[in-house]
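Limitations
The structure tokens in this dataset are predictions for the assembled complex, not deposited experimental models. Users should treat interface geometry with appropriate caution, especially where small molecules or nucleic acid strands are included. An illustrative entry is reproduced here so readers can see what is and is not provided.
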Amino acid sequence: MRKLIDAPNPLEKSDKLGVVHVSRKHESATRQVQGCANYVDDVTEPQGTLYAAVGVSECASGTIESINLDAVRQSEGVVDVVTIDDVPGHKDIGPVFEGDPLLADGEIKFFGQPVFAVLATSVNLARQAALKGKVEVSETKPILSAEAAHQQKTFVRPLHRFGQHADRVESTFKNAQHQAHGTLSIGGQEHMYLEGQVSLAIPDEEDRMKIYTSSQHPSEVQKLVAEVLDVKLHRVMVDMRRMGGGFGGKETQAAQWACIAALLASRNQCAVKLRLPRFTDMHVTGKRHPFENEFDVAFDETGKIEATRMTINGICGHSPDLSDAIVDRAMFHADNGYFLGDSDIVGHRLQTNMVSHTAYRGFGGPQGMIMAEAMIDKIARAIGSDPLSVRKRNLYGPTTGSFTPYGMKVEHNLLPDMIAELEETAQYWQRREAIAAFNRESPVIKKGLALTPVKFGISFTAKHLNQAGALVHIYTDGSIQVNHGGTEMGQGLHTKIGQIAANEFGLDLDMIEVTATRTDKVPNTSPTAASSGTDLNGKAVQNACITLKARLAECFAKSLGLEDRAGDVLFINEHVVLDEHKITFTELVQKAYFARVSLSSSGFYKTPKLQYNRDTGEGRPFFYFAYGVSMSEVSVDTLTGEYTVDKVNVIHDVGNSLNPAIDIGQIEGAFIQGMGWLTTEDLKWNEAGKLISENMATYKIPAIGDTPKEFNVKLFGRKNAEDSIYHSKAVGEPPFMLAISVWCALKDAISSLSGYTVDPQLDTPATPERVLKAVAAIQQSDCRGGAI
Amino acid sequence: MIRFLINNDVVELNEARADLTLLQFIREHRKKTGTKEGCAAGDCGACTVVLVEPASSDNATKLNYRTVNSCITLMSAVHGKQLLFVEHLSDGKHLHPVQQALVDYHGSQCGFCTPGFVMSMFALYHSNTKPNRDDVLHALSGNLCRCTGYRPIIDATLAVCEQTPDDQFTARQDTTLATLLSLSSEKPSGTGNIFTPTSREELKALIQAHPDAQLVAGSTDLSLQFTQQLKDVQTLISVSHIDALKQCTKNEHSLIIGAAVPLNDAAPLLLNAFPQVAELVTRFASLPIRNQATIGGNVANASPIGDMPPLLLALNAILHLDNGDSIRTIPITQFFKGYRETTLAKGEWISAIEIPFSTPNQSLAAYKISKRFEDDISAVCAVFNVTLVNGKVEAITSGFGGVAAVPSTCEALENVLKGKQFASKECLTLGKQVLVDAFSPIDDVRATAEYRKTVLANLWHRFWLENQIVNQIETRVVQHA
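Predicted assembly:
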């Protein structure tokens, strides 16, 4: 560069809005509303791009006898067909443990398992050809239930167990005044990202490969593609600008499609796109784990928990995938916000002939946490107390205890204050009375109310994943490009990262460009998961900014002859300031360029304080907890089981919010998604193990009419006591579990039929059918209610 | 040939596969990628586009903006219309008001559903009706969002639709109208293997020439054969351009709805005559589907889970069946023979559905039970039509969906209850007993047989409660206007 662009007029902008702790719009919003925000399928295709599809098994279990692909090869437009035998490198793409062959490898593990892949000249021709494969399987009886898996002792991983004073649980039970037992069957959940799985592989010189993929984990895609192709990692570059939703479904399970596309691209030396049609996507990708859990709880006459025994059974599908960590997280959240007394928590990882279930917002947390709430409801009905009173009675604190079943001390517990605030502002007790009055007068429609808390541990429980990198470039016009290891799936990560960088340099957001996530810019990244995207990458970006600021400050101080004062230089309002000296940011950048100062830096961060010993089941797996409380009011039609969620009040803890609008968006969205999980989203498999809720016509996520008429979300606004990025808190997953208040409210409405003496058995999802069944169970058990 | 407008440009399409969808045309042929494919089945709305046509009710001085799911719309449907998709909305660098509202209210997260929402909001904005919250929910009922939880989208839509429409499209309205009128005055001639007859005679001739061709109207169900089952289609004959099939008329005794009238066009007449069926009409799929789907198609399909047949059965509708030479009429109760099997003869089509008006002593209710209120398929659909004389049951006609292989009636209900005092407990319990045993439904993805039987009986309970003259009690969690 010989000459730099003209620096802007150094006139000061007045009253510029702050860039953090304020609601700035999503960085892609204006492009999204115009349809010019590109997703993988929108990227301009290279000349000669061909299209792939997968052929799948039509049984759930057995040994492959033969694969006849003649008809596939002869099908119109077909260019290539591959099976597992055509993989030059690793055949197994399991993310943590082996068990996930790229294509079926001798055995069929689930109904709909990809057996071969076909490449053709159009999307339709590829998909049509894929239907023509003949796969002969000598079938074995599939294992399709938790019960069958337990009986046949099929597990994807060994069990894990922890507890506090587990040795005296039995005697505490013996001496307790009250005991209760409960079971709950908890349904899984389809991610239903609006953008299905898609990858575009473009071969580059010799054996190099470039991948566009809709993935939450570009580094893992890079590694697996390299392994499958048998090349070194540095030959593969993965680019991920944005996903059309992820929710965990693209954490590990985006890789298979990228690897298949890369395999075909490598063999045929042309660009290959593999986009799964929705019905295939639903058959071949894992879902939220269904669980079949059980508890025993001992408590006194005030409802105080004295001992807890819990068995957590995660139905993992055919392979480990991430199930070990998911069942662990279910166990870590079986207490929710409550002290469980003497405890013994065991978690099984059941292997079944189903698609391998995977990460999903909450990562097992919801399936553990709902057990705590089930237990509280049970206690409340047993002692004839309001469930809210029992909830408050058992919160971690001086009158109960401070250590979780896994031995982590609960510090900075916000739940007592948050519950008190919601109870007051949303008028729990007044509404409780009003509902009782309504129910007395209304024989068919019954209302229910519940207030439930959330305490969610923040950090990957696999310690090594709690690291992040960033790369920040300053250009000579003062504009800044930021790269980091996190991926944007709609959660506003790039917006928050942009705010952080802008804030560090004292610039407005339009000076910051956050680019696509690329494995050649920031290497060895962790998945964008566990709500950690901003916590980890925000800190890494901040650290890169701090490095650059130090260089610029030094350059500035030096130019003023004040070398020893570099530490006092400030970056504010597009200016750099030292005492009475002031220069525009851009001018200083140009000065630094001429002074041969590097204007690019990487940054790194690792989360402090983490240690968990899996052998002893003790430690601190989480940096901190995020909290929330929600209150839901529902109306149930006792003739049909139909219901509506009428009113929802939420107070949620995001520490110092980096961007209130985005945080509220996460909270509302998570709540509705959680509500869907617990209400209408009903996964069904037939007796052969085939998923029959295989499209959006038969699997119903919440629609716009399901939005509660009143939906009030408030941020709690207390800063994170731990040193997180600007003392904010992670927000992606925790609010998902606020929706448990809907499930409790439905049970409350049903329980009203018994005068609140019966705790209804309401497995999830609580479809109208299940609600009606619970209603009928009470009506038939000769409680009050019954005939009108 | 099919002629239409893409925004302001006249486009002529000469050759296209019969199964080419509008979405494929936009994304693959025109290389415009703003419109997204989420499900390719009309269930998610990511592919929503707007079709503009002269409003038939206003002497063609106004334009009608309608949303459709481009993923299941066939190209023949756009003849003579203006096609607008998300790329057309902003005016240079200026966002359209609906786009700006969505940005201002933080209504996009991952953004994949956003173009579809934008188009639904745009159509509602142009309805110029100052919609309330319920109107907004209905207008956006065909758009799924997995990220936001919808609240900001509802708020943005309410706010922007407060305004009187004022955009480049209203500014160009007259020109657009004139162009569209000239385009639609020309007969479409189909493309390749899809035929677009404009008269009864042409239709007859085409059916004779192509005996294996499938008839198609709104294509909301037929398209699934291509997009979901990946079937190859040979020949299609679209009935959507035959004026005679698109007329609605009324006489003293009945309402006569042309078989190719989209449900939303028929809805005002239908609801005027039978306001009690609002729930069923609103819950009959999403707005974009209702903009295309026809009553004739829903009947001809003979699906056991279609929502119109139960209603038409309970109302004793008469079907007009045409073979091009003569029209015969049969009661709809004689139409459904077996699973997706009808008494339609070869070469015959449904030309109209005639619905006799109710008498003042009839009580009518149409109930739909599904997991989700919006855009879901009935687990059970039940329609009761009871005639009372002096408080006694004189006649009961009924129609049910989701309980048998065909849309069904239940004559036993009338046989058992005739002459009973409607208000009596006996009428309640006997009716429930009849219904619980009337059908042998199956377990499927939507519900178990057990639930279907129980709910059917309980819907009679609901009907009985709702039609008591004294002691009215609340029986519904959702109210439909």
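Some entries come with short summary sentences. For this one: Chain A has three domains: 29-37+467-606, 47-141+191-284, 291-461+615-780.
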